[in-house]
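Entry:
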Amino acid sequence: MIHQISFAGVINNYAGGDTQFAGLLHSWFYVFTAAVLLCFFVGEITRNYSQTDKLWSLMPVIYGWMALASNPFSIRLWLMVLLVSLWGLRLSYNFYRKGGYNLIPWKGEEDYRWKIMRGHPLLIGRLRFGLFNFLFISFYQHLLILLFSSAFLLAAGGNSGSLSITDFIAACFMLFFIILETVADNQQIRFQKAKRGIAGEGDEYLTSLKEGFLSEGLWKYMRHPNFMAEQGTWISFYFFGVAATGMWIIGMVIPCALCWS
C-alpha cells in the first residue's frame, strides 16, 4: 500500500541514520550553491543572462551521477541516471544547434526573453535587474532543477532492491516523452530553417509558412508539444521516487509540472 508523506519528511528520515546519504545531501547543496553563484556573477559581468540555460540540461545529469556514486549498486539509480543522461544529451544538442553554446563558455546566444525582460518598467536599472537575475534567473531556476531532480535522492536513500512495475511504467513513459520532445524540436528546427529560406527545407510546411507559425506535425494537435513532453518527462521521473519509497511524496510533483525547456 502506498502512503502519503512530505518530501522533507522522507529526506529527514534518510539523513538521520545514514551518514553516506547525509554526505550526498551536502554535496548536492554545494553544487547547487556554486551553480547559482556562477550563473549570477557571469550573467552580471557579461550581460548574457542565459547562463542558467546553458546548465539546464547538465545539472540533473550531474545530480544523478552524484547520487549513483553514493549508491552504485542500485539498479533503480542506474536506470534513472541513464534516462536522464539521454534527456540531457538530447536537450544539450538542441541548445547547441540553436547557438546557445560557444567555445568561450560565457558567450553564446542569449534567450530573447531576457532581452525583453530588461526593458520591463519594473526591471529597468542595473540594481533591479541584478536582483531579478539573482532571485529568478539564477536562484529560482536552479532550485527548480534541484527539486525536479530530487527523485534521485529518494532512490539513493530508499529501497535499492529489484525494480517494480512502477519503475518500468515510469521508464516507458519517460522514454516516450523524450522521443516525443525530440520529434517536436526537430519539426520546429526544420520550420525555422524554412522561414529563413534555407535550401531543401520547407516543402512539408507550406501551410505553416503562410500562417507564419508552425501548425503541422505534432504542432497541429497542440501549441507547444515540446513543452508538454518536457513536463511529461519529469512527471514520469517523479514516479521513480514513488517506487523507491512506496509513498506519494506530497508537493514533489509540483516542480516537475513547472519545468520546461
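Residues 10 and 76 are 18 Å apart (CA to CA).
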